[in-house]
Hints:
Layout: E1 3-15, E2 18-29, E3 33-37, H1 44-52, E4 59-64, E5 68-71, H2 84-90, H3 99-112, H4 128-141, E6 146-150, H5 158-175, E7 178-182, E8 194-199, E9 202-207, H6 209-223
Parallel strand pairs: 3-7, 3-8, 5-6, 6-7
Antiparallel strand pairs: 1-2, 1-4, 8-9
Amino acid sequence: MPAAITAQDLSFAWTPEQPILNGCSLEVPQGQFWMLLGTNGSGKSTFLRLLAGLLKPTAGRVFLQQPVGFVFQNPDHQLVMPTVGADVAFGLVAENLSPQQVRGRVAEALNAVNLLDLERRPIYALSGGQKQRIAIAGAIARHCEVLLLDEPTALLDADTQQELVLQVQRLVKHRGLTALWVTHRLEELDYCDGAFLLEQGRVIAQGDPQKLKAKMIELELAKTP
Ligand SMILES: Nc1ncnc2c1ncn2[C@@H]1O[C@H](COP(=O)(O)OP(=O)(O)OP(=O)(O)O)[C@@H](O)[C@H]1O
Ligand SMILES: [Mg+2]
């Protein structure tokens, strides 16, 4: 299966004294849902920004199927319009579509995240989980091939967290999207096809999510006195 996301020997530093990524490589196969784990400050968010082209690496290259959608930890940093329908349509302004085509894309995207009935709802009147699904709908409206999600469940309660991870799992399965999801929550590994562990600027383990989960638990246990 071809890769939809490829990072080759990526290096990056915010300051010369502190390299964050050091020859980091990974590949996510097309049509799969993978997760990225690592301790606080290991560089997961920086890595996702490099993949999305929001930062430039000091060395190495990225290849991603286009277009790419990004979902941030806090949806209030990304939803910019007053209503759900307007926000999903906002991402389409650069695409030169007719008003009818825009309405069609918005309906398709809201339907894909099961929120068609909220099209006229003001953004402020949404729950945290609904806001994250609207952020995902924005990417679907743009017909994104790749979805990058940076701890999208960090601000959600346990039930809403599970709903969101299931939603992304369904989108990957039914729409053929490729998703890379950053998390700290080991229970989320139950929903993905594979996972990477990022430490000291590189991927130090990858593959079967249950094996990685066991390794993470072992590393955590090894740390406790
Ligand atoms: N804009 C910035 N300027 C300078 N240093 C930064 C900047 N953003 C992040 N860093 C530093 O880069 C390192 C990696 O940060 P990053 O946010 O990528 O880690 P992370 O793995 O996402 O952590 P977390 O699990 O806490 O979200 C940290 O030491 C952080 O302080
Ligand atoms: Mg982060």
